[in-house]
Give the backbone structure.
Amino acid sequence: MALLQISEPGQTAAPHQHKLAAGIDLGTTNSLVATVRSGLAETLPDENGSHLLPSVVRYRLGLPPQVGEEARAALIEDPHNTISSVKRFMGRGLADICKGCSCSEYDFAEGAGSDSSVPRIRTVAGDISPVEASAEILKTLKACAEKTLDGELTGVVITVPAYFDDAQRQATKDAAQLAGLTVLRLLNEPTAAAVAYGLDRESEGVHVVYDLGGGTFDISILRLNRGVFEVMSTAGNTALGGDDFDHTIAQWLAGQAGLGAEMTVHKMRALRAEACRAKEALSDVESVSVAVPRDDGSVWQGELDREQLNALIDPLIQKTLSPCRRALRDAGIELDEIEDVVMVGGSTRSPRVRERVGEFFHCEVLVDIDPDKVVAVGAAIQADVLVGNKPDDEMLLLDVIPLSLGIETMGGLVEKVIPRNATIPCAKAQDFTTFKDGQTALAVHVVQGERELVSDCRSLARFELRGIPPMAAGAARIRVTFQVDADGLLSVTAREQASGVESSVQVKPSYGLSDSEIEQMLRDSMAHAEEDVAARNLREMQVEARRAIEALESALASDAALLSADERTRLDAALEDLRAKAEGSDHLSIKQAIEALNIASDGFAARRMDAGIHAAMAGHKLEEFS
Amino acid sequence: MAISLTDAAAARIKTFLENRSSGYGLRLGVKTSGCSGMAYVLEFADQTEADDAVFEDKGVKIIIDPKSLVYLNGTELDYAKEGLNEGFKFNNPNVKDSCGCGESFTV
């Protein structure tokens, strides 16, 4: 008898058609997997009942890699083959990593020579890239989830830090692919935490996510606007976390017990473990007894109370507050605009941290959900919605296109294909045509922005569509399709409908654009709205004028004989007039000149038509045409 | 004519309903599908229809449409843990045969 879960009304899946989705928090220190069962999002334990999987992979000769607790245990004895904190290397070139700090920790294999090549870590099982190591962690989580849920995962949502750039996000997706997972979406970690608290269901507001983990600290300020979370600013410290708390307490213990500065690795670890135990215990009780073995074999016994602990960790908490201040300044937010602070990361269990953070932001601190699990829980909720296990009206949208996307058309004008604030993923197509007779190639220039002229927008990519069969101007039909996937990656495809020739390009539209730049672009578009309309009208008229001139010129070149000298003079005069006016900046006078030229050439056009028909019919009998 | 819940099932359903923060009770039912005739329906209920039968056991309201009740009468709903997996289990005396995985059944 299979075990069943409760579904939303009307959403019961047919047997063997379960859609299983999971949320994965792929962390620097620990990783978790969570899912929604019977309407409740919860993290999934492994066989040993542990929810946290240490993000450590150990490679062995001739044996499959070990992941998790076993690998972490081997960190000291087998450091070169055991990879931890691999997330720091994701999507990074060797040069980037060496700029950081932990370069010496691993034996990086020489890449192809270039600094930007993917770093590979030398182990007994061969050279391992960070993506491969991450994939091992994901594989373990996948196996755990599939065993628990008794079926194959349809898709997963993986969380990444808000500051991850395109390369780091892509590397994370690659790792998921390598692990055999379908990524429904990458979700920003702070957004996931906010989703876990159901903040996306509330009205608009500003939320702060304070994430103090084992080794890193991140602060993110989010603005919720019509169900969409926008990351306003992020800041943090990549070398500050609960481990530093332990270290500080351990040093205090060593001082109290009168231990010398010289300590073996083993002793230091024992001391830290004791410090960590005391710290965790003090979250619940006022005072805890501690014991430290001395060198001479005796044991120092002492007390650590909350007051002393607070005095020890206060300077460290203080260090988290300056990034908070910076993030507030970057976001341009006043303290009283903030609704609440979401606490993430094991270190936020400390009552002192909660107190200080609450004081700093003058608002409620959300701590109800286990801070180690909150990100995975949020990801699971999002995965459940994306995989289609919820009624459609509950579909939450989390991302929009910040600026319109379009292509350049004749005259340097922008034709918008996807308007700003369109929700992603989305796809739109528009048909374009050729401008000249016999045109066989088309340059597609993809631009981003709200302005009417290409020169005022941001250029994203250029590509060419070649091999268009020669046709009269305007006869070719070229369909340009814009597609933005859930991660904001844009792909543009141009396809000539008759011959099927196709060409495409992929870009990340928001890449390298900061929020303030986007805002500036939007402000400009409003400030210049009127000029832009005028500029567009003028350019459109100029393009039309050029088209009319070229059409008439090619007609004159072939059929000038049909005109009398008088007619020819009049036509040339109208042509000259239009040429002169097209250089000017008054679109109305260009329009008039075009009309004048049209009238002047009417008779000529009619005669050309007659001549054409005559030529086509000459020498044929009437019956042949019926 | 009755449907009952085990203590474990009742406790879980209450938790799930509280967590969902809306919902009148739990709807049980059967639908014709699957590899062996019938499949169970287990959903949150937001409303009841005029001819629904409503039972209450251990503080949980159970809603069943009259057609399904014929197949489910006497069923005890349990919440069980099997290895890493956990979920609801129908102990249905009407079942004569079920498919290999137990997701669908015949009466």
